């Protein structure tokens, strides 16, 4: 069960959020042509669906190692330097993710002090924004997972 | 000199982090953080822009077009397009190569992405070309180069990104991409034809006849109808580009499930997964570079660039040429979306001041990005083509070289005569101010 959750978590959520984007926009089309009306919430659900699909997709990209890296320079280094370089790169990357976690938490806290109600959905922005730090936590977890997999291979090759 | 420190440090951080292997969107993020620290701006701007960067509604067009392209590819439309192209140009020397170019032009009118077009058409035509004895590097090169048209012939994701950064209207830019896209396609066909003549590739298909073409067109009518709905809908003013993208998804689903029946549940899931990974790895960068765009303004970079080019103010074509060379060089290293976001902010004020139409500059920018698709080390179309042929990137990058000639020519044409680019948009929407 846990293994399946780990395997498919982002994929399922991304599919869900992309469907939200599609359904929101197509609803607008149908409402306008079929019923000459409009849904005030549709534009917001489309945009927020996109945001979550993107950040969860970024996490999925880490898991599947599909983020674009310039590797040919690193690969031309001697073996030891290769490993050092990639590890340094990943530490910097993790540092950036950690910073994003901290900053998105700060920003979310700020939203808990003021009131910002979304005009279409009629909910507080904070209830959506508070998931942002979690997506970055997920990315950190996925970076560590890549290293965990690397350990299982007996530190062979590079954690790419 | 003081204000120059920030940008220089940012550039150094960006290059250093990329070289040691930080994935590009995150390297851009780290560089932006460095810039914010130097300019003494609170880092919470990063959190804010990670959210607000996605608020412009037209952005939803991009994942929808990627998804639509996937559905149409797996649903069976790419096969139909290849069949039609075969009946159209398959009989000539280099037939299969020409078919690849024509089919890519058709598919480019359904899809907004260069790599996706290469994958959709190349995965069918590359094996066919190899069977006819084409050098596999050249076969991969054709699919890569023709696939790049996906970003020029509307709809186009890169054009949407440019439109958002530059505030130029999306339909206007889409229309402007049509003529250069077709011209590029024709030039590519000439190159393919000449090389095939030299190497005696293909040309054994049945002679060109109208009847089989009409049959193929009729059989592929659902595929041919897709661009009519998408582009026709936009230009008739029925849909906004975002709505057209959603309609394209619905149409792709409908045709794939009920008409061509190529879509299975598994393929449907794959299409969603693919879209998620693409936007997660490509659009993610919007969040980290939104703050970057604000920094560009704070550091007055466009102003400094303007001063830098002061002496060339009377030679706008020379400035455009220099920008083109710079863009092509940057495009070898940088992902296109990142390139457009970062450098449009820097150069657009300069070129508009020199009297260059922003629409032309948009097409010019996308064109140079396409060359970036086709040049190592980060030529994404080369990767896609190499995965299909099973060759190394090096082999494809050599095979694609002759096909870069049309792209370079087009850069020069746009530098020296660009009036024709705005012909279609001016015709439909009237001359802009």
Q: What would your notes on this structure say?
A:
The complex is a heterodimer of chains A (160) and B (433). Chain A is mainly alpha-helical and 160 residues long. Chain A has six helices and no strands. In chain A, helix 1 (2-35) runs antiparallel to helix 2 (42-63), helix 2 (42-63) packs parallel to helix 6 (132-152) and helix 4 packs antiparallel against helix 6 (132-152). Chain B has helices at residues 2-20, 24-38, 44-52, 61-75, 77-89, 95-108, 114-131, 136-147, 157-166, 170-199, 210-219, 221-235, 241-259, 265-298, 301-308, 316-333, 336-353, 358-373, 380-389, 393-399, 401-416, 423-429. In chain B, helix 5 (77-89) runs antiparallel to helix 11 (210-219). Helices cover 77% and strands 0% of the residues of chain B. Chain B has 433 residues and is mainly alpha-helical. The longest helix of chain B has 34 residues, at 265-298. The radius of gyration of chain B is 22 Å and the shape is globular. At the A-B interface, helix 1, helix 2, helix 3 and helix 4 of A face helix 1, helix 2, helix 3, helix 4 and helix 13 of B.
Residue fraction in strands of chain B:
under 5%
Largest sheet geometry of chain A: none
**What is the helix content of chain B?**
over 70%
Based on DSSP secondary structure assignment, what is the total number of beta strands of chain A?
0
Helices of chain A, by number, come to: 6
* Termini gap of chain B: 37 Å
Q: Which structural class is indicated by helix and strand composition of chain A?
A: mainly alpha
What is the subunit arrangement here?
A: heterodimer
Mean pLDDT of chain B: 88
Choose one word for the global shape of chain A.
Answer: elongated
Rg of chain A? 20 Å
Instruction: Quickly count the helices of chain B.
Output: 22
**What percent strand of chain A?**
under 5%
- Note the overall shape of chain B: globular
What's the story with the biggest beta sheet of chain B? none
